[in-house]
Amino acid sequence: MLIPPRGRPAAARYRAALAAGLVATLAGAALAAGLVATLAAPVALAAPAHSRAAPRAVADPAREGDVVLREFAFHSGERLPGLRLHYLTLGRPRRDGGGEVTNEVTNAVLVLHGTGGSGRQFLSPQFADELYGPGAPLDTTRYWIVLPDAIGHGRSSKPSDGLRARFPAYDYDDMVEAERRLLVEGLGVRHLRLVMGTSMGGMHTFVWGGSHPEMMDALMPLACLPVPIVGRNRVWRAMAMDAIRSDPDWQGGEYAAEPVRALRTATDLLLLAGSAPIPMQATLATRDSADRWLARELARRLAGLDANDLLYQLAASRDYDPSSRLGQIRVPLVLVNSADDFINPPELEIAEREIAHVKGGRFVLLPASEQTHGHGTHTWAALWKEHLAALLAETAPR
After folding, report:
1. At 15, is the pLDDT very low, low, confident or very high (cuts 50, 70, 90)?
2. HEC readout, the chain
3. Of 11 and 261, more confident
4. Per-residue model confidence (pLDDT) at position 96
5. What is the pLDDT of residues 168-192, one digit of tens each?
6. Residue 97's pLDDT is what?
7. For residue 144, which of 93, 216, 253, 392 is within the disulfide window of CB 3.0 to 4.6 Å?
8. What residues are paired with 111 via a beta bridge?
9. Model confidence band, residue 103 (pLDDT cutoffs 50, 70, 90)
10. At residue 110, what are phi and psi to the nearest 5 degrees?
């Protein structure tokens, strides 16, 4: 389903961009191998934490660094004297002319990851090889791609660094503010060509649009909804958090060894929430193959989890609600979801209702198929990159 932009000029530009053959169509996408099974499953496909490797489509290696945000104040009233934000970049910043102009970056693109992930997940082949190469929508010879690790994730400050359960109770607004300060104070970026994100990063994209509508030319959230997390979506998150808090081995966050029973339950729920029913039915076609897959995935994912980090990551969504600020979004926005997404079920028809409040907003629903990957469809760019290319063409400087 595609809900087109309101207003004939904008709708015509979008249709023209799609019709111009700027990108491959969905019909040409190959059946993807493997299963994306958790909320941030692309992490498992990303390069190792200290790698400087580039995607095959990009000759230039990814650059990485850290910015320490001084005296960071959280909405909870807590503070940290220094909050570390880690980031990767691809491409090179391009600056405007001299004279009285302030030599600002003009080609920055912010890409935001999901719960439990990191910026490094966007180096995975199913994302990077579709988007970053010559002539691709986010061609790194044209754009400077910024891939931050959100608060509590990756190599940014998080509970497992040492504060454990004494780490400030961050929320999505805190995470977006940290991303903003990283750009402005750390990287000298005051305007963005595009903000896009997947899952939690898509929700951050809505927060960005409503809170800082002057800072970007376009917005593309994927695999999310611009409403509070309630209903089944809240219930499975609460189950995972309760499993951690109720495990005696958690010890109020002061455990000497990971509370494995709690993490196993939480991982089970994550696997279900991110599951892809059609490819799983085809690939796990026997009882034994399904059981082997579950055992393998549990072992692999448990090895990289910290109970406090996961608890904070899930709890951060508790007061997310950008719905009242959707009318403040000033730039074109394309929301892309897939019909097999357990976390954002299309039968609720929330996206169609809420996108009507976004001037220049539109909603794309990808049909469920053997090519989609449930919630994880957000990282298989071949399935939706035509809409990104059309959005960038529509919002290109005139």
Report:
1. very low
2. CEECCCCHHHHHHHHHHHHCCCCCCHHHCCCCCCCCCCCCHHHHHCCCCCCCCCCCCCCCCCEEEEEEEEEEECCCCCEEEEEEEEEEEECCCCECCCCCCCCCECCEEEEECCCCCCHHHHHCHHHHHHHCCCCCCCCCCCCEEEEECCCCCCCCCCHHHCCHHHCCCCCHHHHHHHHHHHHHHHCCCCCECEEEEECHHHHHHHHHHHHCCCCECCEEEECCCCCCCCHHHHHHHHHHHHHHHHCHHHHHHCCCCCCHHHHHHHHHHHHHHCCCHHHHHHHCCCHHHHHHHHHHHHHHHHCCCCHHHHHHHHHCCCCCCCHHHHHHCCCCEEEEEECCCCCCCHHHCHHHHHHCCCCCEEEEEECCCCCCECEHHHHCHHHCHHHHHHHHHHCCCC
3. 261
4. 78
5. 999 999 999 999 999 999 999 999 9
6. 60
7. 93
8. 196
9. low
10. -100, 125
Q: Which of 121, 119, 118, 133 is nearest to 56 (CA)?
A: 133
- Looking up tokens 């059946």, which residue turns up? 31
How far apart are the C-alpha atoms of 204 and 226, rounded to whole Å?
10
Confidence (pLDDT) at 33: 28
pLDDT value at position 51?
41
Q: Give the number of C-alpha atoms closer than 13 A to the C-alpha of residue 256, restricted to the C-beta side.
A: 0
Report which of 379, 372, 166, 366 is spatially closest to residue 252, judged by C-alpha positions. 166
Q: Which residue has the tokens 């929320």?
A: 171
> What pTM was computed for the model?
0.87
Mean pLDDT estimate for the chain: 88
Q: Which residues are CB-contacts of 108 (< 8 A; sequence separation ≥ 6)?
A: 93, 143, 144, 146, 183, 187, 189, 191, 192, 193
Kindly list the distances between the CA atom of residue 133 and the CA atoms of 59, 60, 89, 137, 146, in Å, as whole numbers in the listed order. 9, 11, 15, 8, 16
pLDDT band at 104 (very low <50, low <70, confident <90, very high): confident
Parallel, antiparallel, or unpaired for β 2-3 and 361-366? antiparallel
CATH code for the domain defined by 2-24+55-229+317-394: 3.40.50.1820
Tokens read off for 180: 């903003």
* Helix axes 231-246 and 260-273, enclosed angle (nearest 10): 170
**Tens digits of residue pLDDT in 200-224:** 999 999 999 999 999 999 999 999 9
